[in-house]
Amino acid sequence: MEILSNDMSYNRCADFAKRIVSEFVSFPCPACVKNMPEGYSGLCGECFGKLPVVMPPACPGCGAENDGIFEVCGKCLKEEKRNWKKAIAIMRMEDYGRELLHRFKYMNDISLARPFGMIAASLLEESGLRPDFIVPVPLHWTRTFTRGYNQSQLVSRIISAETGIPMKRILRRVKRTPKQANLSGTERRKNLKGAFSATDGEICRNSVILLVDDVLTTGSTLSSASSALLECGVREINILIMARG
Ligand SMILES: [Zn+2]
Ligand SMILES: [Zn+2]
């Protein structure tokens, strides 16, 4: 009883503290640190206006803008058939979008997880998809150790908080793969074969999953991660990426 009342008073204090903080402390736009965030994006209007966001109609294979001649875009036509149903991309890997993503991934600018996560959550809601779980694509533990964080996991956590859909870290990167940038599509696929394993069959079985990653270039990483989930019994995969490379 005493423990319960202590808990209750702790919660009341924590709520009160949060109200005070939100009343008197405001946080500037995490991208430019000069204006205040506006609207749903977590960025100021100026920064949001500079983001190269994807305009519909989008390609279901990679989330990029599609010219609408075929169901998927020209780049996806040249790739292997995707093993996910639909891809959603926040933006193109260009200009200010590339700069912010670079800061977020390599320069420890983790406050950018919030705007990326908030925009992603609103795109997910607009899409009508209602996954059972959100699964971030993991880094190999050695890379998480040197970087200190996994950007896809930080964004997944915000999407989960915004939408109420639970995040589950059920993928493991079992193979450390060299940087993909200078490899051809075939080399990338070979490199990433068996790179992931799914660790919880109970969660996977018959579930619909939203797989979250930072960039899709050829799609080899997401395809390898999706294969591990499908082998574990997942029924449907949709993917969400911050940028289409
Ligand atoms: Zn700004
Ligand atoms: Zn495409």
Task: Describe this structure as you would to a colleague.
The chain is of the alpha/beta class and 245 residues long. The chain has helices at residues 2-24, 45-50, 74-78, 95-106, 113-127, 141-147, 151-163, 185-192, 201-204, 220-231; strands at residues 86-92, 133-136, 171-173, 196-198, 208-216, 236-244. The strands form two sheets. It has a four-stranded parallel β-sheet with strand order 1-6-5-2, with helices on both faces. The chain is globular. The termini are far apart. Bound molecules: zinc ion (2 copies). One zinc ion (ZN) is lined by residues 29, 31-32, 35, 43-44, 46-47.
Helical content class: 40-55%
Distance between the termini: 56 Å
- The chain-level structural class is alpha/beta
Which molecules are bound besides the chains?
zinc ion
- Kindly report the average pLDDT value: 88
Strand proportion, as a percent range, falls in 5-15%
According to CATH, the fold-level topology is Rossmann fold
Strand/helix succession: HHHEHHEHHEHEHEHE
Strands of the biggest beta sheet: in what spatial order?
Answer: 1-6-5-2
CATH class: Alpha Beta
Report the C-alpha radius of gyration, rounded.
Answer: 19 Å
Number of separate structural domains: 1
Number of alpha- plus pi-helical segments? 10
Biggest sheet descriptor: 4 strands, parallel
The backbone outline, from C-alpha atoms, is globular
Q: Count the E strands.
A: 6
Low-confidence stretches: none
